[in-house]
Amino acid sequence: MSFQHSQSFSSPSAPLQVAFDRRELSVVLSLYGRMVAAGEWRDYGISCLRELAVFSVFKRTADHPLYRIEKRPKLRQRQGMYSVVSMDGQILKRGHELKTVLRVLDRQLIRAVK
User: Fold this and answer.
1) In what helix (H) or strand (E) does residue 94 lie, and over which residues does it extend?
2) Could you report the per-residue pLDDT of 48-83, keeping only the tens digit for each?
3) Residue 81 bridge partners (DSSP)
4) Residue 2: inside a domain, yes or no?
C-alpha cells in the first residue's frame, strides 16, 4: 500500500491574506477622520482574511459595525473589488474605485453636519 501526499491547488503567487495597501488605507482613514470629527463614528477594526480585507466602523466599541468597507480581489473583473456593506448586510455600493464607492458614506457626513 502506498500513500500519496496531496498538494494544494492554490497558485504559489496567491497571497496568504488580503490586505489594504497604503493608498487605500489613506483614503479610508481620511473618511474615518472626518466622520469622527463629526461625532458619527468612534472606533474601527481591520481584518485581513484569505478572501477579503475588511475595515469595520463602529459608533460604540461594543456594538456591531455600522458599516464594513470590504476589499475582495476575486471580484476585480466582475462588479468591482470594493464594497460598502451596512449593518444588516445590505451592499450599499460596489465598484472598481475605492473613492467612488466611499461617496455613499460621504453623503451621510453631509446629512450629519446639517
Assistant:
1) strand 91-95
2) 989 899 999 998 766 788 899 999 888 788 888 899
3) none
4) no
* In-domain check, residue 31: yes
Strand 91-95, strand 43-48: pairing? unpaired
Per the structure, how many domains does the chain have? 1
Give residue for cell 463629526.
Answer: 38
Report the distance separating Cα 45 and Cα 66, nearest Å: 11
Is residue 87 assigned to a domain?
Answer: yes
Burial of 21 per CB tally in 10 Å (0-12, 13-18, 19+): exposed
d(Cα 43, Cα 24) in Å, to the nearest integer?
18
Q: Say which residue the cell 473613492 belongs to.
A: 99
Answering whether pTM is above 0.85, one says no
Distance CA 7, CA 100 (A): 40
Grid cell listed for 82: 470594493
Q: What integer best gives the mean pLDDT of the chain?
A: 81
Alpha helices in 1-114 (DSSP H): 22-37, 98-113
